[in-house]
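User: Second chain of the day. Same drill as before.
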Amino acid sequence: MENRPYGPSEAGRSLVAEASGPRRRWPRRLLTAVTAVLLAGAAAAVVLLLLLPSSSHGPRRARPPAAGAQAQAQAQALTAVTSGRPAAPHEVTALIGRQESRVRARPRDARAWAVLGAAYVERGRGTADVADYPRAERALRTSLRLAGGKDAAVLDGLAALANARRDFPAAKRYGEQALKLAPKRWTAYPPLLDAYTGLGDYKAARQTLDKLLALRPAAAARPAVMARASAVYRDQGWREDAVAQLTEAAAAAGTPAEQAAYLAGVGQLAWERGDREDALRHFGAAVRLDPGRRTAWAGQGRALAALGRTARALSAYQRAQEKHPSPDVTLELGELYQSLGRDGAARGQYEQLRDQIRQAVAAGVDEELLTGRFEADHGRAREAVTRLRAEWRRQPGIEVADALGWALHMSGADEEALTYASAATDKAKGGGVRSALYAFHRGMIEKDLGLTAPARRHLQEALRISPYFSPLRVPAARAALRGLGDVPDEPLPPASRKP
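Assistant: Same format as last time:
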């Protein structure tokens, strides 16, 4: 197992255990002992309070900031959006208002335009309002023009915008330009990590992470760096390392919004390994810290649904979808309705999904992957194949390999489908991530090809990774395993003799 940056952690421990267990010591090369004790003690106390059950029936709502705290909140948002760290949506909106006033008063202020563009990107990602992306592009390109075409911070912003739009080739281009201009700036590395991952270049992603860790960023940046390391480790199948890094990031985060983002990430990792209760605790802690954290509300919805608390699950999904619904969550909610036999509600979600995709595409977002997934399962499988083939040629990541393999299967081309499903699940072919969905897809393809033993193995693996990974696909996996029957009671082959 690889060594983790910024100190040893017991892999896979939840923040609940962190708060109640003995405190770990941080390596001397990163922090002094005194600073480490103070930081860990404060963080553990905060996390313990956050993860205790709320005294009310619902999550605590954040109080509006006092007038004297508004300047501090804007300063925090400014620091966050210019360094790529998570920020609360209301703080980002306040920052946007200030920057819009500034660029009107100083239209040739390249720095003001750059901050405005970065803030639009952050708000668009946080609220799923794709209308912010064209605004971000205009602001960032204005800043780049005023700066003479060479400004690493603006190029970072353009790379982040391209990643948000799932345009990974453009994100790679901008990210590499920014890194060339300022190779010692840690903020140049996270957009490149996203771009390389989206393009399926996992070797480059790992090398980029190694370079980022070698920079030894300042203490304030370390939680964000840990979060980036966690994402890379998760994609490579190092699940315990991913959990440990993100747990450390949440404990050391500098603001409630940043901590909420990392707690939501820990919740998602717990969900992916099938731990519904742990996932729900971390998602709940995230929304108590930051009620605008949409990913945490959606995470609560899927965890509650897996626990059989359907009414509360639907309420959490509705909170996630307020104002600017996210297409991926709309699809998830539609499939939950379908699993409950509420076909009319499911059809309504699928119609909304098509509208949301059209709006996103108009704002420059590449939604071919999501569209292909939806059409393969709920619409036109052959159209899904056409879309996903083009997407694979443009940016061949693991997600696209899995989706294309499944679309080929749904259109009847199982032999070719298995090639892509194998690429998504075989570590030797790049598919290091442990995904119940990917294993399910491969198992179902193998079943239809008559490959009984591999099909049984991969379907069992899907349910072993997470018995709750999908309200529609878990019953299908169980039914398929029943159809495959028990493992034949045959004697083992004799041991081969050495020559």
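The chain has two domains: 18-52+74-307, 386-484.

User: Great, on to the next one.
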